[in-house]
Write a structure and sequence with these properties.
about 300 residues, alpha+beta, 5 strands, elongated, disordered N terminus
């Protein structure tokens, strides 16, 4: 056999030996694999460094600063208003609040005169709570919306309502709803008896109550006397109003009857007319602060009534 043949056989033999050993290596690797269900994962522990007493003090200070942001804004607005620091660019504080491009503008309200006054009122309430509530609790409001219901109470009663709300929230900062419920309970407890009578003519006092928006100054006739509210019949329907939002005109029986007739006439026209100009006229009659119509008002209402009949 020549040398070339022997070399070929030797190469073939080597390849054959390699093919035999490769599966063994593969089998060895498979046998060494660990079952994932029983695998052990090593996690390196990270040591959490405790805050020093000074760091704890700094953290508390910064957290309080964040929580007081709305309070600081309200105080700043009061100083801007009281010192008239807007006078170089705006005629009134209201115009200043409306035009000024506040960087922290609220997405919910925008920043206008109403929001400015809400923040200022909240700052006064916050200051009252901070002075009179138990300092050991350290539970104070974190935004204006939480304490807005407290504006309905006298300053002396506000801390009591806030502490009741904190208790209802299990020692946490209470929500707007919880504070509102606490305020309602106190108002019902301290409310004077309902002395209004059926047929009495009352004026609505909105007092920044969003639920009475557009009804401030309107009058209505008491159709139901409840424990802490009255149901008023008005030219555009019936409304149940809390006693704190009502003021009696103290009309005589004859005047009450006259207002009843006027209410019924306005209501009939309103329910049968969809024109905006007519509704605007009726709305103005719905804010009368006297027990009669002027000659011109009587003439206009009569014309509208004739149009409906026709």
């Amino acid at each position: 056999m020549d040398k070339s043949t022997r070399k070929s056989k030797k190469s073939t033999s080597a390849a054959s030996d390699d093919s035999k050993t490769l599966p063994n290596f593969a089998n060895e690797d498979i046998s060494q694999q660990v079952d994932p269900a029983t695998a052990t994962i090593t996690v390196t522990a990270v040591e959490v460094t405790e805050l020093t007493q000074e760091e704890q003090s700094d953290r508390l200070f910064l957290e309080r600063k964040v929580e007081r942001a709305f309070f600081e804004a309200g105080k700043a607005l009061m100083e801007l208003r009281d010192r008239k620091l807007y006078r170089s660019t705006h005629k009134t504080f209201e115009e200043y609040c409306r035009v000024r491009p506040w960087r922290w503008r609220s997405h919910r309200f925008g920043h206008n005169r109403r929001q400015s006054y809400l923040l200022m009122d909240a700052a006064v309430i916050f200051d009252n709570l901070e002075q009179k509530c138990d300092r050991n609790d350290h539970i104070l409001p974190t935004n204006e919306w939480q304490i807005r219901p407290l504006s309905k109470l006298d300053p002396d009663i506000q801390p009591e309502a806030w502490e009741q709300a904190v208790e209802s929230a299990n020692g946490k900062v209470p929500s707007h709803r919880i504070v509102k419920d606490a305020v309602q309970r106190i108002m019902e407890r301290t409310q004077v008896p309902n002395t209004y009578q059926l047929g009495e003519v009352c004026q609505i006092l909105a007092k920044d109550n969003a639920e009475l928006r557009g009804k401030g100054g309107c009058w209505g006739i008491v159709s139901a006397v409840n424990e802490f509210s009255c149901t008023l019949e008005m030219w555009d329907g019936e409304y149940t109003i809390g006693l704190q939002h009502l003021k009696s005109f103290n009309y005589l029986p004859a005047e009450r009857e006259q207002m009843r007739v006027i209410c019924d006439r306005i209501s009939r026209v309103y329910s049968n007319s969809l024109e905006e100009t007519v509704k605007n006229l009726l709305q103005s009659l719905g804010k009368l602060n006297r027990a009669y119509l002027t000659a011109l008002e009587e003439k206009l209402l009569t014309v509208l009534e004739s149009e409906i009949r026709d």
